[in-house]
Design brief:
Blueprint: E1 9-12, E2 25-28, H1 35-98, H2 101-105
Antiparallel strand pairs: 1-2
């Protein structure tokens, strides 16, 4: 195996006045990418962005299914509630009639024979 030594090239940027925390040397890369490599990198980035979009879209769809399930549970419970309200009203009305003054004033019949 043979090793090649690489040299790094620096281009100096000298300014009229240097300030603190300012770079005075810029690094110039010796690696250059061709048009095929650029196309491959762009295609890879588009693919990754597409996958991110798909994961977000499927996550929103799963929230829609959960919301639909909760909505159906709410509808079932509201139907049961209205049925129980009707049953409560029916039982309360019968109890009210039995405890009324008119019902208390009634007498039991002596005979309950039916005509033939």
């Amino acid at each position: 195996m043979s090793y090649q030594t690489t040299t790094q090239f620096y281009s100096h940027r000298r300014q009229a006045s240097w300030n603190r925390n300012q770079n005075t040397v810029a690094f110039v890369s010796s690696v250059k990418l061709g048009p095929v490599a650029h196309t491959a990198l762009v295609a890879l980035m588009i693919t990754v962005l597409g996958l991110v979009y798909l994961t977000q879209a499927t996550r929103a769809t799963s929230y829609d299914y959960e919301a639909q399930k909760i909505d159906s549970q709410i509808a079932d419970l509201s139907t049961k509630k209205s049925d129980l309200e009707v049953e409560n009203a029916r039982l309360t009305a019968l109890e009210t009639v039995q405890n009324s003054n008119v019902a208390k004033a009634m007498t039991a019949p002596a005979a309950t024979d039916y005509a033939h």
